[in-house]
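Check the record.
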Amino acid sequence: MAQSFESLVIRHTHRLPTPKGTAGDGAVAARQFDAALASVGFKLSAELLERLSGLSEAAVVHTARRTLRTVGEMVGDHVRHNAYFIDFPANVPDTEEFWMRCVAKALGDEKSRDNVLKQLKHGVLDLLSLPTYGRYQHTYEEMLAAQDELVASAGDRITVLHLGRDLDDELTDLYLALAGSTTPLGEDDLRDLKALAERCALGPRPEAIPVRENRAVVNAARLGVGADLLLDSVTDVLRLACALSGGDVTLREPTRFRSLSRPLRRGLLAGLDAVVAANPAKLADVHAYREPFKRLGERLHPHEYPRWPHAADVFAVARGEREARSFDSRLEELLDAFDVLGAVRLLKSAPGRLFRALDLLLRIAADREERDAVVAAAVQVAPEVSGRVVLSVREHLHNRAGESDRPRIFVNRRGRAWATPDHRSPVPAADRDRLIAALDAELRRRLPAPDRLLLDPDVLDVALPLSGRATAAGLGVLPRGSVSVVDGDQLRFFVYWKQTRARTDYDLSALLLHTDYSTDSWLSYTSLKAVGGEHSGDITEAPDGASEFINLSLDRVRSTFVVPQVNIYAGESFEEVEESFFGFMLRDGEQKGRPFEPRTVRMKSELRGVGRVALPLVFRRGDDGRWHAKWLHLYLKGISSANRVEENQVSVSKVVRAVVEREQLTVRYLIGLMSGGSTTVDLWDGEPAPAEPVTYIGLERPAGLHPDSRIITLENLRDLIPG
C-alpha cells in the first residue's frame, strides 16, 4: 500500500516523497537512476539527486525500481507498443496494394483459399478472414531489431522529479488539496481522494469542502471511523449513501443501494434528521431525486427509528405522502407566466441558480425595468456565488456577443458532446457589458494580490479548469479549450488498448479539414497514406494489448486542421476495456527511433469516456504557419459498431468548429485581473531565481525558488479558481 500511495504522490505532484534507507555512498546508483529516468523523459532535481547520493546503493536501487515503474505508467511505457508494419513509418504501402498482398497470401494458404475464393465470387471480401490481416506478423523484439535507436534531441521532453517531504506529510497535503478543491474532480482524482480520505479521515480537514461529490467521499470515510459528518442538505446524505454502496456520487447514474449495517443506517438517518430539523425547507430538495430516495428508504427502514421523525419526512415526500413544494416547480410557474420580476425575487434565494438563469431571464424580459432588475439582482448576490460559477457565466456571456452562426456545443459530465445550430436571440449588448464588468470586479476582489508574480509564458493560454471533468487523467494534459504550441517537425499520435473479454478493435484515425471545416482527406486503416502522413496498420484484436500510430510531417500537411480520433469498430467500450489511452509525440526533423519513444511523448491521456468515438484534441495551423493544439477531451455517441472516420466526418467537423471558435477564459484572463496595484507581473525564463518568496504560475515546477513561494502548475492549477 505504501508503494501505491507513493505513486499517487508522484503522479499528482511530480515530487518523490523523501526517500528512506540507511546512509551510504549511493552516488553512482543515483546517477544510473537519473540516466534510466532520462530514457523515459524524466530527470532528478539537483536536490533529489543529492538526497539519494547520501543513501546506500541498495536503498537507491529500491527507490529507483518503484519510481521507474510509476513514471513508465505515467508516460505509457509500461506496455509494449508494437506496430503492424515492422519498419513504420518507412515503407508503408498504399492501401489497395496492401490489401491485394493480403489476398495473395490468403490464396496461397490451403486453409483460407476456398473461403476467400467464395467471397471473391460474390464481390465482397471480409478483411478479417485473411490470415495476415489485423494481427501482428512479427514479435515486439523483431520490431525493435528492425528500428533505429532514437538519437537524443534538445527538443525531447524532460519532466523533473523534485524532492518531497515525508510520505505522510505529502499525503495529508494532497488530501487537503483534493478534498478542498473549488472545482469538481475528474473520476480518477475522485478515486484517489477516496483512497486518501480512508487514510486521512481522522487528521486535519479542509476549511471547507465546497464540491458535493468530494464531500460525499470524505463523509463515507469519516462515517467509517466514527467521525462527525459534514452535511448541509438532504442530497448530501443521498450522495453519501451512494458512496457507501460503491455507486455514483455525482448522481448521474442510478445506484443499486446495498444492505447497510445498523451503524451505517443510524448514521444516515441521524444525518437526514439533523439537516431537516435545522431547515424544514430542505425537504423540497427531495423532489429532484425522488426515485433514488424511495429506493434508499427501502434500505434504511426509517420506521424502525422513531427518534428521527424528520428523516421519515424525507421519505414521505419522496413517496408523495407529504407535500413539500419544490423550488423548480415554483420557478417553472413564474417563467411560464413570463413573470421575470417574480422569478428574480425567488432566484435571489438561490444565487447559483440565478446566475445560471441570467441568459434566459435577459432574453424573455419585456422591458428595460425587468432587465435592470435582473442585472441588479445578479450584482447583489454575486458575492454568494461560487467562483467557478461566476467564471463559467463570465465565459458564457463573452461568447454571447452579437449574432453568431457557429454551432452550439453541449458537453455532459461524462465528456459526451453534440453540436446544434444556435437559434437563441442575442443577449442585449448593454446588459451583457454591465454584467461582465460586475463579474470582473467581483473576481478581482476575490483573487489574491501577491507582491510579485512570475509567469511561464506557455501557461497563459491554458484554459481555466472550471471542472476536473473537462480534462483527462494522464501526463501533460491541459483542460478543454486550452491552446498550446506544437514545437516539432514530426507529429505522431498513438493509441493503446487491451481488451477484457471480447474481441475489441479500436481504429486510430485522423481527419484533415480545410479552413472552412470541410474535409480534405483522412488517415485510417482504409487510407494508410495521405499527404504528409502514414498509418501504422490496422490491428483488429487486443487480447495482449495493441497499438496503432499515425505519423505526420507537418511541413507537408496542406490542411488547416488535423483531428485525431479513436473509433470503436468492434467490441468493448472505453470504460469496459482493461486499459486504453491516447497520446502524441513530437520529433525534430529526421529524428527516427522506434514507433513509441517515451521521452518524445508530450501528452498521454486515459480514454474513459462514454461514447464510441473519442476526440482528444485538434491541431490547427495558424496564418503564420505555426501549429497549435486545442484540447477537446470529447466523445461522440457514434454507432454500436463499425465506427469509421469516413462516416462521422460531418459530426466531427461540427463539434470541432464549435470548440475551436469558442473563446475560453484562460490563465491570461486571471492574470489580467491580478495585475496592477501592488502586484508586479514578470514573464520568467528561469534565470536567475529571485531571492524573495514569489507566486509562480507555469506548466512545471521550477527549481531554485524561495521555499516560501507559492507554486501553481498543471498538477494544482485548480487552486487558481477562487472560492
About this structure: Residues 335-407+423-446 form one domain. The first strand starts at residue 15 and ends at 16.
